[in-house]
């Protein structure tokens, strides 16, 4: 039963502390995800592995990162947010730390791919959806933008540090450094992260006690699968999932792991290329927070149309911008790509809420899974294109064309949601509570 006790008075609402530590957890987990793009060249030099082989490990990581997300909400419901986040950080740190002992490519797939993929996937954007759904009623768009920036930016701001550590002491020191970053967040999570507002005697920010639903300890995984089956019968789901597939393909899957090797192919030092991606991370914070603010005030469809369309045009221009020296045109590309990096997340999440109501976090988990499948596709495909053609140019052009297609798909998302089978509010008490618990 929901508590009817009067909420406690706090100078700063605890929801903001929960959001802050969630942001740090996402940054800590993302530290390792900065490693592959920088270490492709060092691993090729030491072990003689091809770009395709290394990209296969990255692809497994990205696929599991996404496919774990739909069930992460179920894990958080069953065991609590704090326990799941701590376990995820420890698993990520283990996978990262053990890479210093690897001697074969299958170990790279096991550690980079499976362990880190499962660890980071247990948080991912499902953590963003769960925290914003439970702790915030007002400012959800803004907070979702801030938290999304934490995960995406963490992957990028660590790049110059990883590149510097690799240049100074070798790739193993870089891997251990990112392990330490993930472990450093664990004490803060144990101290500040709480599962629900009621745990500290408050109501959700901008809401009432009725917005803090009773926890459900069973049936959450079944709800996740039902959410997929019901959403898959609707056109908006496929349009949003298709757009997000291309979003992942054109960011995490292609630019993040392959930008540095591509720049190095044209004579640019690895440290310089890593610094450029770090700048993407800096501007990603501003772009994603601004996107969250705009999502609270603008039609999300129009935002997605602009984000994907402009991203596609920029990718068509990218091959001509590479060179041994840094020019203003490349800096302009980096600034724009940073602003656009994951700006798609707040409007996509808003459309999921619009069409799927209380099941939105579960449905968004599956939409995000498509994002990471797209990332895996591009991570592996980019490596294959590089090995077969000797250049990344074809990969950039294909990604640009697909972004234009994503812009068209966003424009086709209906403006008025139509009732769909399985998307109405749950009727039985257990299912209703489970669905609300995910939101």
Low-confidence stretches: 417-439
Secondary structure: number of strands = 0
Report the portion of residues in β strands.
under 5%
User: Percent helix among the residues?
Assistant: over 70%
Order of helices and strands: HHHHHHHHHHHHHHHHHHHH
Oligomer kind: single chain
- Could you report the average pLDDT, rounded to the nearest whole number? 81
**Which outline best applies?**
globular
- Briefly note the structural class of the backbone: mainly alpha
**Computed CA radius of gyration, to the nearest angstrom:** 21 Å
Biggest sheet features: none
What does this structure look like?
This protein has 439 residues and is mostly helical. It is built from 20 helices and no strands. The protein has helices spanning 14-30, 35-47, 51-67, 69-79, 81-97, 105-121, 124-135, 140-157, 159-169, 171-192, 220-231, 235-253, 255-265, 270-295, 300-317, 328-340, 345-356, 360-389, 393-412, 429-438. Helix 9 (159-169) crosses helix 10 (171-192). The two termini are 17 Å apart. The relative contact order is 0.16.
List the helices and strands and how they pair.
Elements: H1 14-30, H2 35-47, H3 51-67, H4 69-79, H5 81-97, H6 105-121, H7 124-135, H8 140-157, H9 159-169, H10 171-192, H11 220-231, H12 235-253, H13 255-265, H14 270-295, H15 300-317, H16 328-340, H17 345-356, H18 360-389, H19 393-412, H20 429-438
